[in-house]
Design a protein that fits this description.
The chain is an alpha+beta fold. It contains 9 helices and 17 strands. Strand 5 and strand 6 form a beta hairpin. The longest helix has 18 residues. The chain binds 2-oxoglutaric acid and fe (ii) ion. The site of fe (ii) ion has 4 residues, from loops. The site of 2-oxoglutaric acid has 9 residues, from strand 12 and strand 17.
Length: about 375
């Protein structure tokens, strides 16, 4: 673990400074990017920033104009390490993608909105669907540069999008649920739905979605951290799909017993993201939040951009346009958030000119 990795963010554009590893010309070696792979991870060395990733590239960036750059503390491992974890165990915990100040702002937002919504204090969860417009921190973290890089690398695509408008959910502490074992809840995430795949059997490759859940509070056994079964993303089907034997949704979940013998709770500290292959068998465990406090999380279902979104997203464009979030976010954040959630439910082909040109050429050749 290394706590000292840094991102260098341009104040003007909101983009991140990185090293163009494919360019040996020293003048063009540094460049700004929307997403942060290993090539955007730095270490601070007095006033200079040293590039950490590739042993044979030695770049030092001297901040001649410190007002142009923000130095931000990054996650403790290289992005490629998280990709490897997803590839080997089906999930990764990316720590430190929200700092203390951002967490406080989100929690304050939740407190205020909770009152406006008039929801009760105990049991089960509620969803705050407008959170991406009203909380700049939520909008920004839904497009976090390291998470974007890790997800694209894992899914093996250049373009990804949100299956629904990212939302904040609050799992309240138990009262009536205390000591109970409610039945059900086991599922997999989008796009792994019954009826979508031939014989309801998933292809092993490529992965078609990840769930990117950001922990606003600690996730662990006593706070209602998501329950899951390690390795279950490799099964070729979902829980309880009837022709597949044992039904994990029958009977309450008692960890260590029967079909629930291998269940664990995720352990992820506040400010981190729990990213998992959408095929991982998991469950919201409302009866286990015995902390006496809310456990908030931002939920994002992310797929390659060509996968049809899970839910209607058209409410996003209008409400984001005049929102608090859009008024304060960086240009980079606005661009990435809009690309991830904008355009209603259909991903529009951005460069229709190519198609038009082709049509024109075809017509010309007929003349
Ligand atoms: O909030 C949780 O613990 C799990 C939510 C969930 O199932 C999901 O995000 O897909
Ligand atoms: Fe889920």
């Amino acid at each position: 673990m290394n706590q000292s990795y840094r991102l260098i963010c341009s104040i003007q554009s909101g983009q991140y400074l990185g090293v163009n590893e494919h360019n040996n010309n020293s003048h063009q070696q540094v460049k700004t990017y929307d997403d942060c792979g290993d090539n955007c991870i730095w270490k601070q060395d007095n006033k200079a920033m040293k590039f950490v990733s590739v042993a044979n590239i030695n770049v030092t960036f001297h901040m001649k104009h410190p007002n142009e750059w923000n130095i931000i503390s990054a996650s403790p491992k290289l992005p490629s390490q998280y990709v490897k974890e997803l590839q080997t165990i089906g999930y990764a915990i990316i720590e430190n993608i929200l700092d203390e100040k951002q967490l406080v702002n989100i929690r304050n937002y939740v407190k205020t909105e909770r009152k406006n919504l008039g929801v009760g204090d105990y049991d089960d969860r509620f969803i705050m669907p407008n959170s991406i417009h009203e909380s700049p921190e939520i909008a920004s973290v839904s497009a976090h540069p390291i998470a974007m890089n890790v997800i694209k690398s894992y899914l093996g695509v250049k373009h990804i999008h949100q299956g629904h408008i990212p939302w904040l959910t609050v799992l309240r502490p138990v009262k009536k649920l205390k000591g109970t074992f409610p039945e059900g809840g086991w599922h997999v995430d989008y796009p792994y739905r019954l009826g979508r795949f031939s014989d309801d059997e998933w292809p092993e490759y490529p992965a078609l979605g990840v769930q990117y859940n950001i922990c606003v509070d600690d996730f662990k056994a006593s706070t209602g951290g998501t329950q899951f079964i390690p390795g279950s993303h490799l099964r070729k089907h979902g829980p309880g799909w009837k022709e597949y034997g044992e039904d994990i949704n029958i009977g309450g979940t008692k960890i260590g017993e029967g079909v629930h013998r291998d269940v664990v709770h995720v352990e992820a500290p506040a400010g981190s993201a729990f990213i998992y292959d959408s095929r991982l068998w998991h469950r919201l465990a409302p009866e286990t939040n015995i902390s006496g406090k809310d456990r908030a999380a931002i939920l994002c279902a992310v797929t390659p951009a060509w996968v049809i979104p899970m839910l209607e997203r058209s409410a996003f464009d209008k409400s984001f346009e005049n929102s608090l979030s859009k008024s304060v976010l960086s240009k980079r954040d606005i661009r990435v958030v809009e690309k991830m959630v904008g355009n209603g439910t259909s991903f529009q082909i951005q460069n229709m000119n190519l198609a038009k040109d082709r049509k024109a050429r075809r017509q010309e050749s007929k003349l």
